[in-house]
Design a protein that fits this description.
Layout: E1 10-16, E2 20-26, H1 59-76, E3 82-86, H2 97-111, E4 116-121, H3 129-135, E5 140-144, H4 150-156, H5 166-173, E6 180-185, E7 187-191, E8 194-197, H6 201-214, E9 218-222, E10 233-235, H7 238-252, E11 256-258
Parallel strand pairs: 2-3, 3-4, 4-5, 5-6, 6-9, 9-11
Antiparallel strand pairs: 1-2, 7-8, 7-10
Length: 259
């Protein structure tokens, strides 16, 4: 079974196809996975592997490790475009997420003031005031919306709570109008006898209405780029992604990228 990708709290830097030179922060366990989604395409594997034994890193540990890494990179003259919250699950599940973001912004300003702080989130914790307030302070607030149709979202993203539905996610993301980027993974395939395809006219039309409601500063479309735990998924090639991006941009007047 595909398992966790990140075995440390601070990892990289790595070259991100969408973000540039990125230093990663994993707020979830180093030996397990914790997430409010269980996406079929998650590069860190399924939630069934369990949360591990290490537990989530403390605020002080994150701050100490990040300071050490940034000091070393700065001394060596290494470039840095972005500090990215990602890792083995949903970063906003960390109980001190707001405080960790404050620490990261402070350290960024000290060592790499030109670098952007980015959070990759599945948008399920936006109802927590501390999470929402913290996300309003980062440079790049990237929020996931793979489908605006409940059946597709539940099959593809497999939320751990039955209360998570597209209309709630869309309403929560709307509070960041103009301040967020919405990321959408497009793919095809099947899982447990169910066909998955969020590139159909019905799916794209529903997403367009969602984007119009949210009014993000940008929409990012992407498809599978690495191994996925569900091996029945198919990548959407760039030409098709670009055609969908062009349609969305035309109908919403929102900038759209395809990668």
């Amino acid at each position: 079974m595909q398992t966790v990708l990140f075995h440390s709290t601070i990892y990289g830097p790595v070259k991100s196809r969408r973000l540039g030179v990125s230093l990663g922060i994993n707020l979830m366990p180093n030996d397990g996975k914790m997430c409010s989604f269980d996406c079929l395409y998650c590069e860190a594997g399924f939630n069934a592997q369990g949360p591990g034994k290490d537990g989530i890193p403390s605020r002080d540990s994150v701050k100490r490790q990040l300071k050490k890494k940034l000091e070393a990179m700065h001394t060596a003259g290494e470039p840095l475009d972005v500090i990215t919250f990602s890792g083995n699950g949903e970063p906003t599940l960390h109980p001190q997420f707001k405080e960790v973001v404050h620490d990261v912004l402070t350290l960024r300003d000290r060592f790499y003031p030109q670098a952007k702080v980015t959070v990759l989130s599945n948008a399920t914790m936006l109802g927590r005031p501390g999470v929402a307030n913290a996300l309003k302070k980062v440079d790049n607030n990237l929020l996931k919306l793979d489908s605006a149709i409940a059946a597709t979202l539940r099959t593809l993203n497999r939320p751990t709570s039955p209360n998570v539905l597209p209309e709630g996610i869309i309403a929560d993301i709307k509070q960041f109008a103009g301040q967020c980027v919405v990321q959408t993974m497009l793919l095809r395939g099947e899982w447990e006898g169910k066909t998955i395809d969020n590139t159909t006219d019905e799916e794209i039309s529903a997403l367009i209405q969602a984007y119009k409601t949210i009014q993000p500063r940008q929409v990012m479309l992407y498809s599978i780029d690495r191994k996925t735990p569900a091996d029945t998924l198919q990548k959407v090639e760039h030409d098709e992604l670009q055609a969908i991006a062009d349609r969305i941009a035309k109908e919403t007047q929102i900038p759209v990228t395809a990668s």
